[in-house]
Amino acid sequence: MEEDAKDFLRRVLLTLSVGALWMLINSTLGLMMGWAFFATTPTLGNYIFYAWFLGSLVGMILYFIRLWKKKFPVT
Questions:
Q1: How far is CA 7 from CA 23, 24, 28, in A?
Q2: Taking CA atoms, which of 4, 10, 24, 35 is between 20 and 30 Å from 53?
Q3: pLDDT means per 10 residues in the chain (75 residues)?
Q4: Residue 63 within a domain
């Protein structure tokens, strides 16, 4: 397989796997543990969850930008 195709498929696989892992972690913490919703007032767990959610989202987007900004190897 050509090096360009390998690099492209590696980037696609990394993007999909990191995105799926991020969604799995956030759905587990938010939905299954109940930190995404609150009944009357938010608790400390809600604040921690939403801070984690936004911080990890920004980090993941920056990682994707850095991953896809690199030039493909030209052979």
A1: 24, 26, 31
A2: 10
A3: 86 96 95 89 92 97 93 65
A4: yes
